[in-house]
C-alpha cells in the first residue's frame, strides 16, 4: 500500500461526503487456507493465460491496517469450504476473528452435509450476521436436500448470504441463474447477495433481483478493466442498476484482486450513474443492512 493509493481511496469517499466505505466482500481466513487460495490464483496464469497477481499479499495485520487506512468502516471475512467437515471449523475461526476485529461483520459459511443445519443455527445464535456460499469452489447444488435446513434457518433469521453463483471466471456444474431461481421459488424470502453481479450472466441475475425483493447484488470485480476485458457488463443494462440502487452493494474481493482497491471504486463511479447512486452503493446500502 502506497501513500498515494491511500490518498486516492480517501479522496474518493471524502469528495462524496461519505464517512468511509462499506465493503461487503473481503476475504480474511485462516492462514493455511489463505495460502492455498493464493497458490490457486498463482496457478491460474500458466493454465489460462490470464495472469492474476495478488495485489495485497500481506500478513493479516497489514491487510487489516490497509483497509482501515483506506477508510473502510465495515467489511467481512468471506470464508468458504471446498469439502465436508470444514465449514464448522471455519465458523469457529470466523467467530474468533469477529470478536477481535470489531469493524468486521461476523461471517459464517456452510457446506451440504448432515451437520450443516445444526452448525448454521449455532452460528446464527452465536451472532453471525452474514454467510458466504461458494457454489463454484464447493461444487455443490444450492438445491441439495442437505441444505434445506440451512436455507430455512437463514430465511427465518433474515441473515444475508453472499453467494458466488455466476459462471465466471469459469462455469461450474451448478453455477448460473437456473439453480438460484429454483432455490428462490422454494425459499422466496432468502436475503441473497449475488456476488460479482452474477458475472457473466448479469442480465439474468438482474431479472432475479427484479422478481425477489430480498435479493441484492455486489459489485465485486464487476466494471473493472480486468473484468470488462473478458466479461463486459452490457451497457444497455446500466439503467437497470439505477432501478436497483438500494440493493447493490460495493464489494472489492480484497486482498485477492489483480489491481488496486482504488480501481475497484473508480470502476463503480465511472459508470456515470450519479453521485447519489455511488454513495448508496459504496456506503449507505451496506451500512443500513448491517446497522453500521
Tell me what you see in this structure.
This protein is of the alpha/beta class and 292 residues long. It has one domain (3-290): TIM Barrel (Alpha-Beta Barrel). The protein is built from 13 helices and nine strands. The protein has helices at 3-15, 31-48, 60-70, 87-100, 116-125, 135-138, 148-157, 177-186, 202-211, 225-228, 238-243, 261-269, 275-290; strands at residues 21-22, 72-76, 104-105, 107-109, 130-134, 161-164, 192-194, 216-218, 248-249. The strands form two sheets. It has a six-stranded parallel β-sheet with strand order 4-5-6-7-8-9. Strands 1-2-3 form a three-stranded parallel β-sheet. Helix 5 links the parallel strand 4 (107-109) and strand 5 (130-134). Helix 4 (87-100) packs parallel to helix 5 (116-125) and helix 5 runs parallel beside helix 7. The radius of gyration is 18 Å and the shape is globular. It starts with a helix and ends with a helix. The model has no long low-confidence stretch (mean pLDDT 96). Keywords: Lyase. One of its GO terms (cellular component) is cytoplasm. Residues 23-292 form the Amidohydrolase-related domain.
Strand content: 5-15%
If strands are numbered along the chain, what order do they take across the biggest sheet? 4-5-6-7-8-9
Give the helix tally: 13
Give the CATH H-level superfamily: Metal-dependent hydrolases
